[in-house]
Amino acid sequence: MNALQIGAIPLTMRDLIDVARRGKRVELAPGSADRMRASLDWVSDAVAGRLRDDPGAPVEPIYSINTGFGSLAGRKAFERPEQASDLSRRLIISNACGVGRLLEPDLIRAAMLIRAVSLARGHSGVRVEVAQAILDMLNHDVLPAVPEYGSLGASGDLIPLAHLAIVLSRAPEGEDLDEESGQALLNGQVVSGLAAMKAAGLERLKLGPKEGLALTNGTSFSTAMAALAVHDARQLALTSEVTAAMTIEALTGFGDAFLPQIHEARGHPGQIASAAHLRALLKGSAFIDGSEEEDPRRQPPQDAYSLRCVPQVLGAVRESLEFVGSVVEREINAATDNPLIFPELPASRRLKALSGGNFHAEYLAFASDFTAIAVTEIGSIAERRLFRLDDGTLNRGLPDMLVRSEDIGMDCGYMLPQYLAAALVSDCKTLAHPDSVDSIPTCANQEDHVSMANNAGRHARQVVANIENVIGIELVMAAQALELRLEVSGKGPEALSPASRAVIELVRSTPTSDGRGITHLTRDVVMYPRVRAATELVHAGAVLDAVAPITGGEGH
């Protein structure tokens, strides 16, 4: 795999996933040092006092370079240039105070890449060595141990990023202390940052002026959470259309609801695409009642909303996730620390450092909130389909709980997986409450409105994980229901749509942790290995891969 270059052209979501989950190497594009030099030179001149008209005049305070931070900004300008370097390191040590479980390696890798990209934009006033140090850590798989709690999403993800920076950096003077090096993951174990860097043969940096703030002040973790959530959510939405089609077929659903005329009459692109995907998935089935060429046999030709309205619901999900993805992809490539340095400003303006608010992660808070809401709806409508599959009064002639027991009542069948789905969906309804509407002022009211994007991102990722389980349950139950439908009808497998046959083959050939596989259920067995294996098929994209040759990638 060729190395990914940063600093020249914008990265895509696929680039981020390649680095975060596939370990793709990363390098700075040629010319990166030149792009970063102008802002670095301006910071160096500011620290050395070379910007003053009168060399004997007092040092002017420049936020983040020779003054304190937040509400402490501008109270005093430090006299000695070396104090600016000391300030960088002290900021990192004081900010590294996170708590909670450690974040997953793919999330940490994504955040590290995003931070390096931000620095490589050339507006941060830092040395090229700082961006290179992050990439060296990525390429040697030195991952800081970052706790999940601490960021407010403004002023950036200070606390999580400090846990990254404390591993990368060291004090400007004196011994490099193990107890001030943070923690990192090495071969699955948590060790000191110093030990991890030594094991990788990497030097910890002595930071210069502004470099501490440039490392910690930005939206990198909020962006990484939103990015991984929306990537998984997009795949999940398409997979849920596959499992929905299987359920519709098993319940001998009506085809009218998916005919193109209905969806074109409304005009929403996501709905039109979702209906087209469903038609491709159901094509060739003997169990779908009605088509463009044939009248439905039963009257009225209307299924329950959880079947009939799949394109309307998942179409809206598709479009919401498309919007969120575009927001996140822009943020992956953004310069988000503060202040940003623009040496190209007119000579009449000596202060080239512009204080703004690019660290404010409202975009990411909205993105994660929208993702959580949309994905909760994927699960909410799917759980209603599971209920119908289990209920002998609603499933059009299939056995209760999808198990044909020798003695009725001896087997629970798929009763409890529907309970599990209900619990997961209920959890998501709480998690999907928008974090972006919350704000708690900090820093003596200087930072009086924050985005809570980090909380939104954590919740969005949990919602996606929950609903992957729900769709995994539907995958198993729909496969069981389709096989039972063949039994009830006396038809052979050729009566099923080719897409459904391909997915059933995938499910039945998938190994489980107990060695039994996801077999057709004729009596109760230990269920959790089956559910977990099916969920992994959903998460890995295997279900979409199975139907792609049949649908021609329809819906992707």
Describe this structure in words.
The protein is mostly helical and 556 residues long. It has 2 domains: 4-218, Fumarase/aspartase (N-terminal domain) (Fumarase C, Chain B, domain 1); 226-338 and 358-551, Fumarase C, Chain A, domain 2 (Up-down Bundle), CATH 1.20.200.10. The protein is built from 19 helices and 11 strands. The chain has helices at 13-22, 32-48, 82-95, 105-120, 128-139, 158-168, 193-200, 211-216, 220-250, 260-266, 269-282, 305-308, 310-332, 362-390, 415-431, 453-489, 498-508, 528-540, 542-551, and strands at 4-6, 26-28, 99-102, 143-144, 147-149, 169-170, 183-186, 189-192, 205-206, 340-341, 353-354. The strands form 5 sheets. The chain has a 3-stranded antiparallel sheet with strand order 4-7-8. It has a two-stranded parallel ribbon with strand order 1-2. Strands 3-5 form a two-stranded antiparallel sheet.
Structure at a glance:
This protein is mainly alpha-helical and 556 residues long. The protein is built from 19 helices and eleven strands. Strands 4-7-8 form a three-stranded antiparallel beta sheet. Strands 1-2 form a two-stranded parallel sheet. A two-stranded antiparallel sheet has the order 3-5.
Write the layout of secondary structure elements.
Blueprint: E1 4-6, H1 13-22, E2 26-28, H2 32-48, H3 82-95, E3 99-102, H4 105-120, H5 128-139, E4 143-144, E5 147-149, H6 158-168, E6 169-170, E7 183-186, E8 189-192, H7 193-200, E9 205-206, H8 211-216, H9 220-250, H10 260-266, H11 269-282, H12 305-308, H13 310-332, E10 340-341, E11 353-354, H14 362-390, H15 415-431, H16 453-489, H17 498-508, H18 528-540, H19 542-551
Parallel strand pairs: 1-2, 6-9
Antiparallel strand pairs: 3-5, 4-7, 7-8, 10-11
